[in-house]
Each structure stands twice: as structure tokens, then as C-alpha cells.
Amino acid sequence: MKRAKLFEVNYIYFCILFLSLFGVHGYSLFVLRDVAIFPFIGSVLLQCLFESWLILTASLLIQRYFHKSLFYFFIALSCILVLAHEADFIMTRLMGVSIWFLLHLISYEIGDNFLEMIKSTNISPIIWFLGALGVIAIFACGMVFFHISDRLARRKKLFISQKMLITFCFVPLFLMVICDRVTLNSLSYANYEQLREILPFKTTFFRPVHSVISRKNDLKELKSVNNRIDSIASSKRPSIFLFVIESLREDFITEEIAPNLFKFKQENISFDVAASGGNCSHHSWFTIFHSQFPLRFSKEHIFKTREKGSLAIQAMRDIGYQIHLYSSAELAFYHMDESIFGKRHVLADTYYEFPHGKGVTKAQTDRKAMEQMQLDGIRFEEDGHLFIVFLDATHFGYSWQRENGDLFQPVEDPINYIKAAFNKGSIEKIKNRYRNSINYVDSLIGSFLKCHSDDDSVIIFTGDHGEAFYENGKLFHASNLGNEQIHVPLYYRFGKESALLKSKASKISSHLDIFPTFIDYVTGINPDLFGLEGESIFKLSRWPYTVTSRYNGGRAPFEFCLQSLGGRMILQTHIPDTLKVTSINNKENPIFLEEAKEAFSHLFSQD
């Protein structure tokens, strides 16, 4: 065969490209907790080989039939692609989403919440800028490296025909079909999902069978509230203090880490199952302050509520409460500040924000928020005040006053997120940072509780979501619906009546129930009249489930956890008229399955 009809291959470059892909995805399989390396390494190997061969084929065809500048542009893009696969590993480990899905979410936020999203990563603008320069540098270096490796490869040339080039595309494709058919039957659907998300193509030809519930998955229409309730007779309007603490995980509330919260929990009302509204802040804030199921969250829905604010806060004002806000957290995220308190925060009588950054730590702004709240608590001594406090020191990065010393040592200082994604060796040091931040916030809470030890005020502490440290294969939050990310502190004290009411409270609750419980306690009025979907923890015939949604950017959630005292299941809603069960921890109990199916009539339309 004449060499003019053959392609000369830079085998050095494309071998390195294949080894880079196989290295990152092979390591991804190695660190999975519930999926064995063998035989599933075959799926990883074949997908990496197929992707590499496709890039090789495309590059040779472009080189022969198009301008050289387009060829080198494509080669540079192939280097960026390898970098994207490495970033994909980090994103999958930390957030449980692929880099491609994350780019899709970011595109949805351009022009609105993009800057807030960047700030929420806790990564400085300088690092983002250097990262952008790094991408440009890799783009240039990729072309240089190809040129150098091409010269080396020409010392011992390798040629391949176009027919062979295209034929060889089908070899790994055929082997992938066989490998998927043979190996994937042994995986549970939950473990298959772990494997799928670390594969280069994020899918396989075959997949394990999963449970499907055929029914409408359109949420019921919200009840309309036609008439505001102007005045409500009530014999009591005690001061209410609501603390929403960032990333606060229930099983870290121990006597050693958080002695004040631990004691408060023991003496007052807590729950066997206490679920957050979501595994991310904006879903949980929405569930708390709108008292609507988190599945209703969407950027569009939030925009509709920005003018008047949330029904729950409106209800508290109808009851006769003045509203006071003290926030160390970034409430502008998804315009949640206006969604809760209305345009220009019209529903808030007092509104304080304490921004951090530029040398001011979250620990310092938490202290400022608490100090201002306690000053106002003295100023507003009469009944009828709701104090809402957002504390942020326990958000990842984990801040505390270092001059007070590090109770838990050693600590990772600062957290190296890339190192944490690749290696679990520093995880205990990261957890110690988290423990120190909780201990610091607990000390602020202890000072507050000393001032309210004998009064009749209502006090509630909760976390907006939890935090994971690789217990379910993920780090931090917003990545999956494991207990570490959705089981939060939820503690109530009702003044001197708390001990009596403790026996009357339910054993299961969520963020959805906070404001309905306030309304029931103060007025005895059914929260339904205010358009709220939650129920009082003292209601005798409560809906015995909680709903927690998974992060999906500004879009409506597509995955949620349905939980009861008898078990939990994770479902997806992105297929019309179908609920896909991806995980269930009590499938051996047929009663739980049947009851769970009946529970959907509470959420979804019957039409």
C-alpha cells in the first residue's frame, strides 16, 4: 500500500493521552467504596481506549482534509479535554456531579447567580483567575508538546490506513457491549450509579434493573390563600429565636464538640428522624421559610415570591410578630433574601447582614451577628418578636477564632481541596477543622443560652444541611442524599412548657414543620389557612414522612429522599409519569414499600 494513502501517527502523544485518561478514571474506580476494581476495570479501560481512538481518528482526518491551524486547535482541545476529565474526578468526588453537568448548571446561572455561586465555593478570585490562566497555558503547551512528541515519533514512524483506523473504532465498542453485559448484572443499582459517574462516557450499554413506580410525578397545586388574616387573638406571643447554622451535622453534636447544644438537645425536644429540606443551603432555606416541599424550588418560583416574600413570614406578621434578621451567611444567593423577606426586605423590621471576606472571617461575622441580636433582644423586651439568626462559620473552610486555641488537633490549614479529592490522608485534619468551628459556634450559643435560661422564649436550633467526610464516598455537601448530608440538628425549647410538651411531640420532623409549629403553639390555628405545607410537631395525625431534595443548581430538583421512621428511599422524577427508585434501605419490608407508594398521593397530582 502506498504511503501517500496511509496516516502517519504520533503514537507517543496519543499513548500518553490514553494513559492520562486511564490513570484518572482507573484511580476513580480504585477509590470507590462499594464497587470492586475487578472486573469493572474492564469497562473503564475500554471506554478510555474508545475515547482515545476517536480523538486519534478525528485528528488524523482533520490533519489530512483541513487547514493545519484547525488541526493544531483540535490538538490543543484534546489537552483541555484531559484536563476536564481530571477536573471531573474532583467534581464527582466533592459534589457528586460531573464537570459536564456542572458546566450545564453554571450556564443556567450566567447573568444572575453566577457570582454568588463562585463565592460559595470558598475559593478566592485570585485562584479562579490563576486557574483561567492555567487553562490558557495548557492550551498553548498542548500544541508545543504535540510538536515535540511528533518529532520524536518520526524517528521510528508508524503508519495506519484509513480503513484500519475506522475499523478499529468498532473493536473497543464491541468489547464494551460484551463487558457491560457480563459484569453489570452483579451490581446493585445504587452501586451501578457510583460506577457510572466515574466512567468517561457516564453511561453503559446495559444497566442493572431498578424499581419503577408508574404514577404522575407532577406536584399538587399549591393551595391559594385568598384572604390575609388581619388580626388573631392569642393569649401569648413569646419571643422566638430561630438559629439556622450552616452545614451542621447531627452526629457531631456531642458533649465533647458542642457541649451547650448537646445539653440543650437532652433537656428539650429533638427527633429520631430530623431531615433537612435539601442537601444544599438554598433548598433548605426555601423549605424552612416558605414551608413548602423542597421539590417546588426553582429559580423561577423564587422570582415569583420576591415582591411579597414568603407566606411563613407573612403569617408571623399576621399573628402580630415583628421580624428581626441577623445574617452572617450570603442570603443573596438565588435572591433568597428577597424571596423570604420581600422586595427591599419589606417584611423585616430589623435587617442586619455581616459580610465576610477581605480579612474578615466567618467566625468574626458570626460573633457580630450574635452580639447585635442579643443587644436587640434587650431593646425589644416586650412580647411578639421573632429573631432569625444565620451563622456561617461551619460552612466549608470551617472558621473559628484562632486566638482561642485549637481544641481539636491537628488541623488542615488551609484545606487543600484537590489533595482531599485524591487522597483521604488529610480527612481527619479536615474533620478537626469542622469540629473546631462547631465548638466555636457552640460557645456563642452558650453565651446566648445563659441569658435565656429561665424565660418563656421559644428557641430552635437547626442546621441547613449536613456535611460528609467520605462516609458515602463524597466530601462536604450537595453531592448525595446520604444521612451525613441530610440528617441535621432540629431542637426546640418552648420556655417553661418544654418539658411538658416533649412527650407530645412527634418522633419525626423536618424543616418544613418549623413555622407551622410556631403558629400552632402561639395560636392553635391550622397552618393550612396560611398556605403552608408543613405540619405542627404536635399534630396528632401527622403525615409520617419527610422529603429532602438534592442539589440541582437553580433548576427544580430531580432527585429526593422520602424518609419515615421505618426506612428511606431515594427517587428520581426526570422521567414523565415515572418515579425511579434508585435506593431503598428497607426493601425487605413489604409494608414499608406499600406505605411509601401511598405517601406519594400526598405529594403528587392524581390526575
Q: Overview of this structure, please?
A:
With 607 residues, this protein is of the alpha/beta class. It folds into 2 domains: 3-209, no CATH class; 240-541, 3-Layer(aba) Sandwich (Alkaline Phosphatase, subunit A). The protein is built from 20 helices and 17 strands. The protein has helices at 11-30, 41-65, 68-95, 99-109, 114-120, 125-153, 162-183, 189-198, 259-267, 281-290, 299-305, 311-319, 336-341, 362-379, 417-422, 427-450, 483-486, 498-502, 514-523, 590-603; strands at 6-8, 159-161, 211-214, 240-245, 273-275, 322-327, 350-353, 385-391, 458-463, 468-469, 475-476, 490-494, 508-510, 546-549, 559-564, 567-572, 578-584. Strands 7-6-8-4-9-12 form a 6-stranded mixed beta sheet, sandwiched between helices. It has a 5-stranded antiparallel beta sheet with strand order 3-17-16-15-14, with helices on both faces. α13 (336-341) links the parallel β6 (322-327) and β7 (350-353). α14 (362-379) packs parallel to α16 (427-450).
CATH topology of the largest domain: Alkaline Phosphatase, subunit A
How far is it from the N-terminal to the C-terminal residue, by CA? 68 Å
Provide the low-confidence segments as ranges: none
* CATH architectural group of the largest domain: 3-Layer(aba) Sandwich
Can you give the helix content as a percent range?
Answer: 40-55%
Secondary structural class: alpha/beta
Reported for the largest beta sheet, the result is: 6 strands, mixed
